[in-house]
């Protein structure tokens, strides 16, 4: 598990086209593809938190939403959002 800080260029919102600094981490998994304990994450700025949460919730992928400060990577794999 890598506990090094997340580089500044990777602290941006995962919403397509957004370059705002992330404030939230949306941890998720696809139960058809991932084991129950595996987590991937999207980062969200305040303006896109609800939109990304709704997208993951609709598919029953969302597991938790936590504040994101960029201080440490706790082993969660960051994933790009789908092209919408």
Architecture overview:
With 84 residues, the protein is of the alpha+beta class. The protein has one domain. Helix content is 12%, strand content 21%. It has one helix and four strands. The chain has a four-stranded mixed sheet with strand order 3-1-2-4, covered by helices on one side. The longest helix has 10 residues, at 49-58. The protein is globular and about 30 Å long. The termini are far apart. The mean pLDDT is 84.
Question: SSE layout and pairings?
Answer:
Blueprint (H helix, E strand, L loop, with lengths): L23 E5 L11 E5 L4 H10 L3 E6 L9 E2 L6
Characteristics:
single chain; 21% strand
3D shape: globular
Termini, distance in Å? 31 Å
Separate helix tally:
1
Could you say which structural class the secondary elements and strand pairing correspond to?
Answer: alpha+beta
% residues in beta strands = 15-25%
Strand ordering within the main sheet: 3-1-2-4
Count of extended strands: 4
Low-confidence stretches: none
- The overall number of domains is 1
Largest sheet: 4 strands, mixed
What is the mean predicted local confidence, pLDDT?
84
Compute the gyration radius: what is it? Answer: 12 Å
Query: Into which percent range does the helicity of residues fall?
Result: 10-25%
Order of helices and strands: EEHEE
